[in-house]
Amino acid sequence: MVENEPITLTTTHKENHHKRSKKKKKSKDRDNALNNNSSGSPSSKRKHDHGKHTDESNKKSKKRKIGDLMGAKRNQETASATAKNNNNNNNTNNTHTATTTTATTTTTNTSTTPITYESASDSDSDDNEKTNQMNKRTTVQKRNKPATLTQNRILPHLHFVYEDTVDKKSQIKNRRMIHADIKVNRDYYISDSDEESDSDDDYSGAPLCEWHRKVYINPEKIKSKVKNGEWNIKTGKFSVEELIKLEKRIKKIGRRENLTLEQLRETVLAENHKPHMKFWYQVVKAFPDRSLSQIYHHTKTGYHEDAYKGRWTAEQDEELLDLAKKFDSKFIKVAEKLNRTRQACSDRYRQLTNKPTQRKNWTKDELGILEKAVKEYTEKHGKSISWEYIANNYFADKRNPLQIRKKWESIGTTFDSADTVVRNMKDVTIQVQLKLFEQMQKMGWKAEDDIDYNKVNSDDFKINKETARRTYYKMRDSLHDCDKMKYPEIIDRLVTTRRAMVESLKE
To answer: Compositional bias (Polar residues) at which positions (predicted)?
Structure first.
């Protein structure tokens, strides 16, 4: 070997050499840090404080020891419990002595060494774990209340119907109380109790109101008469109370005519309205603030045997698109093939063909665009807004007209200037709750179904419709025995408690 010849190292030699040098460097740094700390001088500048890590490791080791001791104690208790069970089942002295000896050995060994058990005790502990898991599953099943998603002629929107075993307070959580009280059967009227039996009221005679004399096929004529002030009637959706009243009215008149609900569908609702005007006059007489056209069209749609069939499946959506293309969007023929109503088919088709590309929460930029779009449109074209126009010209099909309309209905009022503006739940304070509940109390509503959250806004207080609804339900559900209270009592309680809270904050 030549003296000046360089030494060539393999890759393994290089790696080992690098590791050894790294360890030496670490040990030197540790010694220097300890010497500096002992002398009172500041420690050398390093990225990590190894003393801190050692303290943390000591704490972790202590926690592990405590955990091991607690686990050993639990194992000891389970072992003694299984031993007692075996003693009761077998009733033999041999098993009794065996279990006592194992129990004594475990008590002596808890402080020194971890406990080990025989295979029999291991199987018993496995059984206990299985039973614990089963108990957890049953509790989870109890928490998940048994409910079915459905809709009907009284509650036309999708909602959950719970079994009778579920308490009422759980059923009304985050929704109106009336959902827990109404049970609707597709083929029968909602109730046949003695309280709702037929009375001696006289329903005969010609209608007194002008809007009760004729059925208008085009709803725009009714809207124009209301807009011009010729007719002083309600427009829009029927309330739950109105739908219950309508059902009771139809039931009473049906009894007089000896018509069941099934026979009513086959005769009066299946045919043109003109041969049955006497029937419709009797029904509409109980609704002075609704037109005959509204009662007729709603009854014919809501009481149809194919109405409210629940959610659409993916297969039904595909079939709907194929049939709409085949019959050139003539939804009367499409409805016959799908066993659904014409209105349900046309609404679903519009939803499928106008699907938005954006389904996430609305951003601040989008809300700004929405405010600008509505402001510019109303200045040019008036208050009757075309949401299709706004969707095409301002959102480039990222949001569909239905999304835009619902969002504006929810937050539109909060863009006005006011002292207090609440757009989401983060802005809800005790003071906001007090203002909201005082506004709801002033309106004098008698039931939760009468609440219109758009009307709680005032000149100095603006709140998002959805935020107002969620706030009311959340605070109502927090009251004790709220399921046994009526709405006026609930709102009075909420106002009283919030006033006391605001006064306490001032002090």
So the answer is: 33-43
For residue 216, being part of any structural domain is answered with yes
**How many Å apart are CA 384 and CA 377, to the nearest integer?**
9
Region class of 281: left (phi > 0), else alpha (psi between -120 and 50), else beta: alpha
pTM over 0.70: no
Alpha helix (H) residue ranges in 328-486:
331-338, 342-353, 364-381, 387-394, 401-411, 430-442, 465-477
CA torsion, ordered 315, 321, 325, 328, to nearest 10 deg: 120
Q: Are residues 291 and 241 in the same domain?
A: yes
Kindly state whether residue 235 falls inside one of the protein's structural domains.
Answer: yes
User: Which tokens is 110 given?
Assistant: 């808890």
In a domain, 16, yes or no: no
- Higher-pLDDT residue of 367, 108: 367
* 120 and 208 housed in the same domain: no
Q: Compute the distance between CA of residue 320 and CA of residue 314 in angstroms, rounded to an integer.
A: 10
* Same-domain pairing of 398 and 423: no
Residues 209 and 296 occupy one common structural domain: yes
125-146 pLDDT, tens per residue?
445 554 555 554 444 444 455 7
How far apart CA 239 and CA 226 sit, in angstroms, is: 19
Q: What angle do CA 303, 307, 313 make, to 5 degrees?
A: 170
110 and 77 within one domain: yes
Per-residue HEC secondary structure of 31-66 comes to HHHHHHHHHCCCCCCCCCCHHHHHHHHHHHHHHHHH
Residues 109 and 168 in one domain: no
Same-domain pairing of 255 and 294: yes
Closest among 373, 370, 400 to 388, alpha carbons compared: 400
Listed residues 395, 415, 435: the one ending a domain: 415
Q: How far is residue 258's CA from residue 263's CA, in Å, rounded to a whole number? A: 9
Same domain, 345 and 395: no
Could you give the CA distance from residue 45 to residue 30 in angstroms, rounded to a whole number?
12
3-state SS of 420-456 is EEECCHHHCCHHHHHHHHHHHHHCCCCCHHHCCHHHH
Give the domain extent around 384. 357-415
